[in-house]
Amino acid sequence: MVSWGRAFKAALVLLAFTILWSIIGGIIIIAGTFFGALGAVRMIPEPPYIDVNWSAVGIIIIIWIVGFLVSFLGTWASAFRISTQLAMEEIRKTMPVSAVPPAAQVESAPVPTCPKCNTPLTYVQQYQRWYCPTCREYR
Ligand SMILES: [Zn+2]
Fold first, then answer.
1. Which pTM does this prediction carry?
2. Which of 46, 48, 67, 93 would bridge with 25, disulfide CB 3.0–4.6 Å?
3. Interval between CA 118 and ligand 1 midpoint (Å)
């Protein structure tokens, strides 16, 4: 089980990431709106005195969507990263280190071979001796 302390620490990290991604998304939206507005609205001498460039307005809306997606996806990507990391640390903590490489230990132990026919010998626990299945003899 992930302890509450560690879970809250992860939540705090997520909060920092949420704020960070909100700022990034916010900058995209504000900057896009500002520069888009410069091109979208134009003063003209005759009524209605304001000329709206609708393609620029469309670009502003796209930038809003992009800014929202960046902050939304960034926040969720951070959440997945943090929770995965928390789970990985938990697995590493609960699993004893010696239990992790049993395959490596078995592999590293050299199996003796028969001096006559070179067949890998079998250890017989009952007699505590090595047995060659080809020669049918104990070595
Ligand atoms: Zn043999």
1. 0.57
2. 67
3. 6
